[in-house]
Structure formats: C-alpha cells, structure tokens
Amino acid sequence: MSSTLTSTITGSEPASSLLLNGTGTAAQEEEEEPYRYAHLLPVYSKDKYPPLQPFAHVDPGSRALGHANPRAFLDGAGVVELTPWLGTEVRGCNLAALTPDQKDELALEVARRGVVVFRDQQDFIDRGPGFYTEWGRHFGPLHIHPTSGHPEGFPEIHLVYKDKNSKFNTEGITTTVWHSDFSFELQPPGLTTFFLLAQPKTGGDTLYSSQVKNFETLSPVMQGFLRTLKATHSGFDSLRSTKGGALRREPIETVHPVVRRHPVTGDEALYVNKQFTRRIVGMKKEESDLLLNFLYDHIAKSGDHQARIKWEPFSMVLWDNRVTAHSAISDYWQQKARRHGARITPQAERPIPSLASMKMED
C-alpha cells in the first residue's frame, strides 16, 4: 500500500474513556495519554481493487464433524449459553493458542450456536494485524472492504471507528440496522471475527438474531413459499453513500435464495436483510415490498430469537453470517468516547438454496 495515498484519523479524547474498565485516578483522567492502539487507527487508501473472483470453498467446520469430540477446544473453559437458541459466552479459552484442528472445531461451534463471545482475549488482540490476517485465512479468503478504513498496510482488516469528533446519525427513531455483512457479494462472508480495541464505558452493544429460528417459526405454508424465491441484494446504495471517501471496488448486485442452507449443519436460514436486499425476483414492486417488509418486521421484533452482546475489554465475538443477522447500537454518542473495532471477514461459499431443485444464474 502506498503511504502517499492514505490519510489517517488521529484525534484524541479524555484518558478516562481510554482506560479499559473506566477506572483510574483523577489525575489520569485530567490528562491525555498515548493511545495504546494508535498503530491500528484507520487509513483510507485510494488503491483500486478488481472485482472479486469465484473460488471453491470448503468450510473448516466440516472437518470437525469427524472429530471424536468436536467441542474439545472448550475443555476446561467456562461456557454459558446466552439464550436457548442463539449465543454462547466462553471464558478460559485463549483463541490465539488454538491449533488448526481446534479452529475447525471453533467454526463448527459458531455455525451451531450462531454467535460465540470469548472474553479475556488480550493475547490475541495484542498480536497485531499480521496475526489477525493469518487467523482469518484459516476460515476462507479475506474480504477487503471497498470503502472503509483499515490499519496501514492491512486492507483485509475492516475498522469501525468513532471518537469525540465523529458525527452520529440521530435523525431516525432507532440506530438498529439489521443486516448480514456484504450479502450482495457472490460469495458473502461466513465465520466472522470482531473485537473492540477501545470502547465507551457503557453502550455500543451488538444485537444478533437467529435467521434459523426466524425461518423455523414461520408456518409450513410460508416456509414452503419462501423456499421457492430468490432476491436481489445490492451494494450500490450503501457503498455509494459511504463517508469514507474513495470507492476502491465497484459495487455489484447479486441474486441469492431467500432461504439458504448451511453447508455443514444443514440448517435452513432466512437470507434477507433490510440493508442490502432490494427485491424479490419475479414479483412486482408492491408485492415484493409487502413480503420483504413482513420478513424485516419479523426479524426485528422476534426478541426471543435474539441475543445482545455487552462488550467488555478484550472481548472477541465470532458469528456465522450465513445463519444470523446483526446490528450495532449507536447509543453512546453523548459520552464523546472512542469506539474502535476490528473485523476479520473471510468469505464462504455461494449461498446454497434450501430447495435443492432451485437453479441459480451462472
């Protein structure tokens, strides 16, 4: 990456918002301190990326199916299920020390539970972006965000960043935007890793919804109908309106099944989201809007299919984009605090239709 073609967000904030637990002396809170993760602040390159190319994907979770104990990587750890259907919290498992076989087991566990949060992962986080990319490539080719900031020299690491100088969109009645990352790509992300490097004292949680349960609770008649449908997913609106500046890869539109099947678990999951899904193929606009809005409403209101992750220092959250939807919560704007996160986003297979006879365009 050319250093002459990048710009860096700097900015500072009160030291109190940088202290990981919101603790410290009054003297510390009155003075500015160097930011521990300044080397991971976002830059915005003007490099141009070619279109993504198709590839054959073998999900690492499939290899764990043959293990004597596919959950052996959790031996000795404290494991708590956040809800019956979705979400697990783990303490006492160092992700940075996992072997390749254990990473396969991890992929299977995330596929089955949808989202898993690992606490106390400073060892992983402090190893830096080179380690992050090595980690992510175990699960698939790394997706490069076409507009967002990234650490200098590591475009594969997608950064989210807000501080006291950032603007928040407070015009709507809510900040929730349910989505599955980059669902408009031909081969959207699968297992995704995300962690915060700095966070507000409270707020900035992340919501997750089980698209498996969202589908399962519909009537058999509706399920059967949805299995026959395809929908267009588009990146044009969200990428063209980005605040990051340069558009480094042209957006695309792709047709995917409305119900997809996970390649390892076999679970059926809704695969529509309000951020990227635009229209049901073959329907008139009014018909498509009616059905999609019903599904969006179902996803948003089904609290019994959701889990809310409250961030702690050095936490990492892994989720499977194929079977979940998620939304950040931007409720911390009055704190003038820094929220700095990093996402590692491996791509997976082209969505597999739940209906085996469905033919997708080449």
UniProtKB/TrEMBL annotation:
Polar residues bias (residue ranges): 1-26
Q: Among its keywords, does the record have Oxidoreductase?
A: yes
Keywords recorded for this protein, A-Z: Dioxygenase, Iron, Metal-binding, Oxidoreductase
Q: InterPro entries from the xrefs?
A: AtsK-like, TauD-like_sf, TauD/TfdA-like
**Recorded GO CC terms:** cytoplasm
Family indicated by similarity: Belongs to the TfdA dioxygenase family.
Q: Which Gene3D superfamilies match?
A: Clavaminate synthase-like
Q: Does the keyword Phosphoprotein apply?
A: no
GO terms of molecular function: 2-oxoglutarate-dependent dioxygenase activity; metal ion binding
Q: Which SUPFAM superfamilies match?
A: Clavaminate synthase-like
Q: Where is this region: Disordered?
A: 1-31
Q: What is this protein called?
A: TauD-domain-containing protein
Q: Which residues form the TauD/TfdA-like domain?
A: 81-345
- Report which residue ranges the record marks as coiled coil: none
Specify the superkingdom.
Eukaryota
